[in-house]
Amino acid sequence: MTSSCGELNVLIVDDKSNIRKTLSYCLEAEGHSVVAVAGSQEALREAKRRSFDIAFIDLRLKGEDGMDLIGPLLAETPWMKVVVITANATIETAVEAMRRGAADYIEKPFTSA
After folding, report:
1. How confident is the model at residue 112 (pLDDT cuts 50, 70, 90)?
2. Predicted confidence (pLDDT) per residue in 19-45, tens digit
3. Dist. CA 11–CA 99, nearest whole Å
4. Higher pLDDT, 97 or 1
5. Structural domain includes residue 2
6. Residue 3: how many CB atoms within 10 A of its CB?
7. Does residue 30 lie in a domain region?
8. Mind listing the pLDDT tens digit for each residue in 36-93?
9. Domain that includes residue 91, residue range
């Protein structure tokens, strides 16, 4: 089954392998092409190699701040939508993510509506 919006090229950046695997599985099941990486350097390398439509970035990566990845990713691919995902949601970080160019901010654990 494919999504009504067509196939998207998706980048997932999360240091937790279970999140990367779960999101990848769900998005691939909807017909999207997914690349999942654990950190900022890998994400930037992938963004230089291919074009992504959307990126899901964890706010807290091992030894890194996912917030700092938004600008460089958007500089590489300005049309990409960035969605910040976090288990530590606050209004302050949501506002900061949007200020840096994120299109959305989602709190973990994910729930379906």
Report:
1. low
2. 999 999 999 999 999 999 999 999 999
3. 21
4. 97
5. no
6. 12
7. yes
8. 999 999 999 999 999 999 999 999 998 899 999 999 999 999 999 999 999 989 999 9
9. 9-107
Domain count within the chain: 1
Query: Environment class of residue 91 by beta-carbon count within 10 Å: exposed (0-12), middle (13-18) or buried (19+)?
Result: exposed
Task: Give the integer Cα–Cα distance in Å for 15 and 20.
Answer: 8
DSSP code at position 110 = P
Asked whether residue 1 is domain-assigned, the answer is: no
Per the structure block, which two tokens stand in for 84?
A: 């910040």
Pairing relation of β-strands 60-61 and 64-65?
Answer: antiparallel
Q: What is the 3-state secondary structure (H, E, C) of 36-77?
A: EECCHHHHHHHHHHCCCCEEEEECEECCEECHHHHHHHHHHC
Residues 16/24, Cβ–Cβ less than 8 Å: no
User: Is 23 inside any structural domain?
Assistant: yes
DSSP 85: E
